[in-house]
Amino acid sequence: MDNIAWMAWTAPTAIFFVLLAGTLAVMTWLAVAYPEAERVGILRIPTTRGDRLFLSLISAAVIHLAWIGFVGSDPLATLPIGTDGIEISSLWLATVLSLLFAVAIFRNV
Fold first, then answer.
1. CA-angle at 6, arms to 1 and 23, nearest 5°
2. pTM (predicted TM-score)
């Protein structure tokens, strides 16, 4: 484990990578079970599911970085759990925005 000690392996980091691996597994299963056909949307270029997933992931990164730059990551509320409580970051709003944008990409691009 010394070779990966440089990374801050926290619970949110682990959840992110597990969800990313799960997303790739589901996309692989979808490609095998339901072969995809290219589709032309509002960009007027043919895109596949993988292309739309890539656009969604890049857009989510840009949305989150812009959110941190313009709004910050101050807590919205603190849940009364434990002695100190659990803070809920405003980044959850950026996550909701990213998910809505991903749905729009998968439907229209």
1. 80
2. 0.80
pLDDT digits (tens, 9 = 90+) for 48-71: 999 999 999 999 999 999 999 999
DSSP symbols for 44-70: SSEE-HHHHHHHHHHHHHHHHHHHHHH
In our burial notation (b when 16+ CB lie closer than 10 A, e otherwise), range 90-100 reads: ebeebeebbee
Q: Which residues of 1-31 are buried (b: 16+ CB within 10 A; e: fewer)?
A: eeeeeeeeeeeeeeeeeeeeeeeeeebeeee
Domains in the chain: boundaries:
36-108
- Taking the chain, what is the end-to-end CA distance rounded to the nearest angstrom? 42
